Amino acid sequence: MTDLFEPSLAQRPASPPPSRGRSSASKRAARKRKRRRQQRTFVILLVLLGILGVGGYYLLDRVGSSFAGFELPFGQQAEDYSGPGGDPVQVVIPEGATGSAMGSVLADADVVASVAAFNEAFDTTPGSAGIQPGTYELPTQIPASEAVQMLVANEKIETKVTIPEGFVAEQVIDKITSVTNFSREEVEAALGDADAIGLPKQAGGEVEGWLFPKQYVVQPGDTAVDLVKTMVSQTIAELESAGVPKSEWEDTLNKASMVEREAMTDEDRGKVARVLENRLAAGERLGIDATLAYGLGKPAHEITVSEWDDASLPYNTRQNDGLPPTPIANPGAASIEAVAAPPEGDWRWYVTVNLETGETKFTGDYNEFLEFRGEYQEWAAENGY
After folding, report:
1. pLDDT digit string (tens) for 80-113?
2. Rounded Cα distance, 134 and 171, in Å
3. Is residue 18 situated within a structural domain?
4. How far apart are CA 155 and CA 26, in angstroms?
């Protein structure tokens, strides 16, 4: 291969005849050629080192900080603030964020001076792997170690809204407005915007039954529509999880709401669901006390005889056939699952014979049902009901 710094063999002059030694001129020329080769080599090395140096610095700046505990070259220390900190800012730690991703969020918000400093602190702070996603309020320009410790403390800016099973829509509104900054007008407007909250058309614009009971987290910037939409989405997810066909969503929630209000124990949910199916299949009225109580907005024991006999009351399932006009509460997963797959049984009646213990007796025999009812009436008289 041809030498980069010397002429090829074909271009070289003929070798001088052998002699016992070179002249001073030829020695000087040889030394000059050697120096030129060394100078060229040195220049090329400098250029290569310069390219590698710039590229290496760029690479370190762009991706090197993604490695926790990465040590900067030549003994350099990661840039860090000494404190005491400035005005607070809100930062959002996304779901599944790595330490470097968190560091980028904080560096962009000027909470920490550099991602590298955050990574070093993250790598050496106990509990850092357990930092949770969410919105945090942190001072600007604080030491990276302090920023990591504040995230580990998990003091997020959020509001938790817990909706119990069996709450009606009005109670859900009261709960939301009592723990959030949403006004009643905002919540009611959200509930009335079926398209915005993703309410299925089969609900007929009525949200009762579609506000799934569980704990929700409201982040800064969330709206009432965001919260209600999440509730409706969760209800749909539960229906799908239980294997309920879309065409049966509304009826399933209607039945599940009655199970939620009538069953006193988890064991009884499936039996109540089976009673509903058996009575509907037989063409019998449901006769559920909780439906009329919902329609009138008062406890069942306060309903008068004339109200029980009033067929004009749409939620009176003693006097009207089929299901009530809407669900009567927001059922939980257990009640939905009970309706989706009720146990086999011939039960058509049930009576809670002791309201304090929740003891409920089921039967497929009407005369036995009358015995159970008498047992309840005796208990109620003894206990002031």
Report:
1. 999 889 999 999 999 999 999 999 999 999 999 9
2. 28
3. no
4. 82
| Residue 166 amino acid letter | G
Helices and strands in the chain: count of H runs, count of E runs: 14, 6
List, in sequence order, every residue forming a beta bridge with 361; answer none if it has no partner: 351
Question: What does the pLDDT look like over 151-199, one tens digit per residue?
Answer: 999 898 989 999 999 999 999 999 999 999 999 999 999 999 999 999 9
The Cα-based distances of 13 to 8, 9, 10, 342 in angstroms read 10, 9, 8, 105
Does 248 map to a domain?
A: no
* 200 and 271 co-located in one domain: no
**Amino acid sitting at position 49:** L
Structural tokens at position 242:
């239980």
Question: pTM for the whole thing?
Answer: 0.71
Cβ atoms within 10 A of the Cβ of 41, count? 12
Range of the domain at 145: 74-152
Min mean pLDDT across 1-15, 41-55, 270-284, 341-355 is at 1-15
Residue 312 and residue 61: Cα distance in Å, rounded?
76
Query: 116 pLDDT band (50/70/90 cuts)?
Result: very high
66 burial (CB, 10 Å; 0-12 / 13-18 / 19+) is middle
Domain limit, last residue, from 152, 178, 202: 152
Structural domains counted in the chain: 3
- Amino acid found at 189: A
Cis previous bond, 84, omega within 30: yes
